[in-house]
Structure formats: C-alpha cells, structure tokens
Design a protein that fits this description.
Blueprint lengths: L10 H9 L10 E13 L4 E3 L4 E2 L3 E18 L5 E4 L2 E3 L4 H13 L5 E8 L9 H17 L5 H11 L11 E4 L12 E3 L7 E6 L10 H11 L6 H18 L2 H20 L10 H15 L5 E3 L6 E6 L3 H7 L4 E3 L4
Bound molecules: ligand 2P0.
Length: 338
C-alpha cells in the first residue's frame, strides 16, 4: 500500500478556491460552536493522501451527544494565535497548539489572530476522538465568526484538513464519511444518515486517560508501510461499512454491532502486524474484552468497539442497560439519540 503526499493542487490553493471572497470578510468580535465526539462503527484507518488528509476507505460513525467540544473564538491583537485547552493556555510549541494554528492560518487572512478557547467533555487523546470534536467545533465556530455561510459538505472537508475523523463530527447521530476519488478531496466529505435509533446505547469503559504514545496519524502510516495484514483491510472496511449501513436502516442490532466489533478487531490485527508492533491495548483492556465475550456467551447481546487507544466502547440496547451497568459498575452510558 502506498501513501502519497503529492497532489495536483495545494491545500492552500484549494482553500482559497472554496472560500473565495469570503476569506477576506470582516470577522465578528467573537463566536462559539459545539461539536460532538464520534465513534466509528466502521473505522477509518489509513490515508491515501497526506496533505488533504484523504482516507483509503469510507467510514461510518455514531456521535456522542453531549460528549464533545465547545470552542469559543475571539479576535485578539497579537502576533500569534492563543490556544486555551480546558482553561489552561497551551504553549505555542506544543503539537495541539501547532495543529490548531496551522489550520487557522490556512483559512484566515494572515493578519488575523484569534484566541481559541476549547473545552472538551471527553478525555483528551484517550482514544475518545477529542481531535474529531475539536476540529469540528473549530470549523463551525470559524464559519460563524467569519460569516462564511459555507455549505455543510465544504465545512466537512475543511474539518478533515485538521483531523480526518473531524469530518464526521459536524452532526449528531449516524454519519457516513465517503472516501471520495478527487485529488483535492472535494468529494471526501461526510453527511448524516437520516435513520435514528433511540434505543441504541454506547458504554464508555475507560481503561486509561493517558495521552497515547503513538498518534493515530503515525500509527496509520506505520501500519500501511509495514503490515502485510493491511492489504486485506480496504476490502473488509468497505464491505463492513455497507453491512452496517444496511443493518442500521433495518434496525438489526445484532448485525450492526457484530460487524462493528469484527471491524474493530480486524483493524487492531493490522496494527499488531506492523513493525515495530503497534498495540494500543493495555492488560486491563483485554480483561474487559474477555468479560464482554463471557457475558455474550451467557446470552447478553453486548458488543464492543475500540479505537487507537486502550478504552472500550460497548454497544447495546436500552433494554439491557441495567444488566450492563450491573456487570460494569464504572461504565458511562451515552444515549446518542437522547
Ligand atoms: C476512526 N480513528 O474511524 C479511527 C479508528 C482511530 C481508529 O479516526 O490523522 O485522529 O488526524 O486524520 O482522525 C483517529 O484518527 O487521525 C481515527 P488524523 P484521526 O475513528
């Protein structure tokens, strides 16, 4: 599998094209926006192009309602952007600050500097996709501050430049990010699915809130370049996505959740086959996984998914919530359509 960082058009040229005159509009004094975090049921793991952050496959997620990011923006008279995360200033040389500033410098006139006040209601970098809600909230807040009034598909593409999974975090509910084919990513955008599933529950089992040692970006690159197991991944990912979408429309919990768990385990297998091996699990992750599988053998329709981190996300329906809470007293239950 090859990744390429060559594109026919530069990201900055593409941003200028879609913003047009709007790039130079006068900003409001301040604006804010909220975006939910999301968990992929069919995962995004691997980029076909680096500068536009384009995925090899499509993916499908469920947003986490009130678990996400609220971002406030205000114009400041300063030489650099100022980034605040959960009430604390992040120094300009830290990767979070660098990524946020790079994104802002792409979309704003050069002289315009902002104070970015970000509050996460999910643990940062613990595999709960705070970069997804973070860049989605930043995109929505900037759209509001600058009065761009861009169509949602363009907002999704702009959010993707910050972090791939952010393209899916602009909406609540089920969201599908299509891989697209264009070199400039104009068709690699997400959109919400109409179908709702009020009985669906997500259980967060936090094994660790520590920042992970290997970022998703680095992990994907290592997997693609060194794991022979990755060769089968794109085909499985596209097939799983189609199965999950059909199961959502049919309200078929077993097929949806079983395919999501199989998809996650297969993604982790591609990582384990990388060199050096990439294993985001911790001993307690495995203990919790085995508990889920035991409960399932005993008849409880309970499934799991995991991202690039040690934490588990449980999938179940409302009628089994008390059984799940009894088995996992520490579980945090989310009602995505609450
Ligand atoms: C997902 N993950 O679909 C997958 C599953 C992690 C495992 O999207 O490099 O933080 O910023 O585009 O979006 C995490 O990847 O990576 C992710 P970048 P991102 O949710």
């Amino acid at each position: 599998m090859n990744q390429t960082s060559v594109s026919l058009i530069s990201v900055n040229d593409w941003v200028s094209q879609i913003l047009g005159e709007a790039k130079h509009k006068s900003p409001a004094a301040q604006a804010s926006a909220y975006a939910p975090s999301n968990i992929a049921l069919s995962k995004y793991w691997g980029k076909r192009e680096l500068s536009f952050n384009l995925p090899i496959t499509g993916s499908l997620s469920i947003s986490l309602a009130e678990h996400g990011t609220k971002t406030g923006l205000s114009v400041i008279d300063a030489p650099m952007h100022q980034v605040i995360l959960n009430g604390k200033e992040v120094s300009a040389n830290q990767s979070f600050s660098i990524k946020v500033s790079q994104w802002l410098d792409r979309v704003l006139p050069n002289v315009l500097k902002l104070r970015v006040d970000t509050h996460n209601t999910v643990p940062t970098a613990a595999g709960l996709a705070s970069s997804a809600s973070g860049f989605a909230a930043l995109t929505l807040a900037t759209n509001s501050l600058m009065g761009w009034q861009l169509p949602e598909r363009q907002l999704s593409a702009l959010a993707r430049l910050g972090s791939g999974s952010a393209s899916r975090s602009l909406w609540h509910g089920f969201v599908k990010w299509q891989a697209g084919e264009q070199a400039n990513g104009s068709d690699s955008v997400a959109f919400p699915l109409e179908h709702q599933w009020p009985e669906l529950r997500i259980g967060l089992l936090t094994v660790s809130s520590q920042k992970k040692a290997v970022s998703s970006r680095e992990g994907m690159a290592r997997t693609i370049t060194t794991s022979a197991l990755y060769n089968q991944w794109p085909q499985q990912a596209e097939s799983d996505l189609a199965t999950i979408e059909t199961a959502i429309i049919a309200g078929d919990f077993e097929t949806m959740a079983k395919t999501a768990e199989h998809n996650a385990m297969s993604m982790h297998a591609t990582m384990a086959g990388a060199w050096p091996p990439l294993v985001y699990w911790q001993p307690d992750s495995l203990t919790q996984m085995q508990k889920v599988w035991q409960l399932r053998e005993q008849g409880l329709p309970l499934y799991l998914t995991m991202d690039a981190g040690p934490n588990l996300k449980l999938l179940f329906e409302a009628k089994h919530q008390s059984d799940v809470e009894a088995a996992f007293p520490e579980v945090q239950v989310i009602t995505p359509f609450g």
